[in-house]
Design a protein that fits this description.
Blueprint: H1 6-26, H2 28-35, E1 37-40, E2 46-51, E3 57-62, E4 70-75, E5 85-86, E6 96-101, E7 107-112, E8 129-136, E9 139-140, E10 144-145, E11 156-161, E12 166-172, E13 182-190, E14 193-194, E15 198-199, E16 208-214, E17 220-226, E18 232-237, E19 248-249, E20 261-266, E21 272-277, E22 289-294, H3 295-300
Antiparallel strand pairs: 1-22, 2-3, 3-4, 4-5, 6-7, 7-8, 8-9, 8-10, 11-12, 12-13, 13-14, 13-15, 16-17, 17-18, 18-19, 20-21, 21-22
Length: 301
């Protein structure tokens, strides 16, 4: 047999390489990783994203160079963002965390250590409470204490809300760090405030859940869970009887080995899951950044 000409050998090698690259591109792990998009990834720590009803404004927490935590906001088109500014009601004396814009855009909920109404001093509170800023005349108004129906001497954090006005949030017991008991709570918005909250029954036992995010239709709950290690994201579905299923670990590429996942948010159309993670982003030093992933594709894999 005559040896192949040199150009033919190169052609064969090229075909083999293209085939190998196609195989790598078609690998499920690579396809899954490509689903994840970095949205806010700067040298600062960023987490807890939420969008306004138009989807064109994004709010999130960004670490301060010094001083208190604030909620930052910027215009948004679905691509990565960096430049942003604190919301107008920010106060350097207090921490404002975990923003959530209500589904109809009338409130911006957040967790804060601001002094309670009627306080005789301006010191930070020992615990964290739920507050909200009302939207009026094209701007966010002065923060309003959400009331004693949902706030207690324990810390309440990380509110999210369904389209029907059901709030879910985390309440903490006594202790420090991850040794503190954590409970997922549910309360319904009423004309005059909030109905008395009830604890959400969660399984499996031993899974410590925080950072709850409820879907607009109230049928899906995503939360950060720990079982002795760093946080990962879990999900639960609500049955027709109103019970929540056992929480299950979300698959890759949301949860990946060696990194923590937390602060989930489900968009108003139910299409996207935003979350915080300390995974490497574009070769940068590991830091808390904000990512998003198509939610329906994630749950059907």
């Amino acid at each position: 047999m005559k040896p192949l000409p040199l150009f033919a050998k190169f052609a064969v090698v090229g075909v083999l390489l293209l085939g190998l690259l196609q195989m790598l591109d078609d690998h499920p792990d690579n396809k899954s990783a490509a689903m994840v998009q970095a949205i806010v990834a700067t040298p600062a720590r960023e987490f807890a994203a939420t969008l306004d009803p138009s989807g064109k404004r994004i709010y999130f927490n960004r670490s301060p160079e010094m001083g208190s935590w604030h909620i930052w906001v910027t215009d948004y088109s679905g691509e990565s963002v960096a430049a942003a500014s604190p919301v107008a009601f920010s106060d350097d004396r207090y921490d404002d965390l975990d923003p959530f814009v209500s589904r109809n855009g009338d409130r911006l909920y957040f967790s804060s250590d601001r002094p309670l109404p009627g306080s005789t001093n301006e010191d930070r509170t020992v615990d964290t409470n739920t507050w909200f800023s009302p939207w009026a005349d094209g701007a966010w108004g002065a923060p309003v204490y959400a009331g004693d129906a949902i706030n207690t001497r324990s810390s309440e954090t990380y509110v999210s809300e369904s389209a029907s006005g059901e709030l879910v949030f985390a309440r903490f017991g006594e202790g420090r760090g991850r040794a503190r008991p954590a409970f997922l709570m549910s309360a319904r918005r009423t004309e005059y405030g909030f109905a008395a909250p009830v604890q959400i029954a969660t399984l499996p036992d031993g899974l410590r859940l925080t950072n709850p995010a409820i879907s607009p239709d109230g049928r899906l709950l995503v939360a950060a869970g720990t079982q002795g290690g760093g946080p990962s994201l879990y999900f639960s579905r609500r049955s027709d009887t109103g019970d929540w299923s056992e929480f299950k670990l979300l698959p890759s590429p949301v949860n990946i080995d060696g990194s923590g996942q937390f602060a989930p948010y489900i968009t108003n159309d139910g299409e996207w899951l935003y979350f915080g993670s300390d995974r490497n982003s574009a070769g940068e030093e590991r830091n808390d950044d904000i990512f998003r992933v198509p939610l329906k594709a994630l749950l059907t894999e």
